[in-house]
Amino acid sequence: MGVRPRAGIVVGVDGSEGSRAALRWALAEAQRWRSPLRIIYASGPPAVGPRGPGLLTLAYAVGAVEGKAERTLAASLEGIVDPGAADDVPISAEVVRAPPQVALVEAGESAQLLVVGARGARPHLLGIGSVSAVCCHDARCPVVVVPTDHPSDDQPRPR
């Protein structure tokens, strides 16, 4: 039984400015390394415990029927990823029906790099959110946590 080669960069988005900063960073890295970029919006309820099964609630069930996940994914890409642009790196974007912690760690199983924002759509008192913390702890590939105030490529960087 051989080891599968790891391919591409995975980035998680949730519509927050933190995830949009992570997407900008991941896109720049994918272009720099000419590596495929896989963008994931996980639409499941938060996991119970560190990575345990999530409890399906009525809100998530109704959101799935109403297409909320697809709209959030589209809003996350807006102004960053141009779906019609001919680029030298393959880009895919998908909704995964699983808790974010589970979806991203599983996607990282075959990735070269997993990129997440420091904090997502839900505010946290700590420096990083629960999804970022689980990814750092459980992922089997390198993880980059991009701070919300990370400058985009068109902004000057402090020296």
Task: Tell me briefly what this model is.
The chain is α/β, with parallel strands linked by helices and 159 residues long. It has helices spanning 17-33, 58-66, 68-77, 100-108, 130-138, and strands at 9-12, 37-42, 91-96, 113-117, 143-146.
What do these coordinates show?
By secondary structure, this protein is of the alpha/beta class. It has one domain (9-103, 122-146): 3-Layer(aba) Sandwich (Rossmann fold), CATH 3.40.50.620. Helices cover 34% and strands 16% of the residues. The chain is built from 5 helices and 5 strands, in the order E-H-E-H-H-E-H-E-H-E. Strands 3-2-1-4-5 form a 5-stranded parallel β-sheet, sandwiched between helices. Strand 1, helix 1 and strand 2 (37-42) form a beta-alpha-beta unit. Helix 4 runs parallel beside helix 5 (130-138). The termini are far apart. The relative contact order is 0.25. Residues 50-56 and 153-159 have low confidence and may be disordered.
- Return the CATH architecture: 3-Layer(aba) Sandwich
| Tally of contiguous helical segments | 5
Q: How far apart are the termini?
A: 48 Å
Report the helical percentage.
25-40%
CATH topology: Rossmann fold
Overall 3D shape = globular
Low-confidence stretches: 50-56, 153-159
- Main sheet strand line-up: 3-2-1-4-5
Q: Give a short account of the largest sheet.
A: 5 strands, parallel
User: Measured on Cα atoms, how large is the radius of gyration?
Assistant: 15 Å
Find the structural class using helix and strand composition.
Answer: alpha/beta
CATH class call: Alpha Beta
Overall average residue pLDDT: 80
Please state roughly what percent of the residues sit in beta strands, choosing from under 5%, 5-15%, 15-25%, 25-35%, 35-45% or over 45%: 15-25%
Q: Secondary-structure element sequence?
A: EHEHHEHEHE
Number of strands: 5
CATH superfamily, by name, is: HUPs
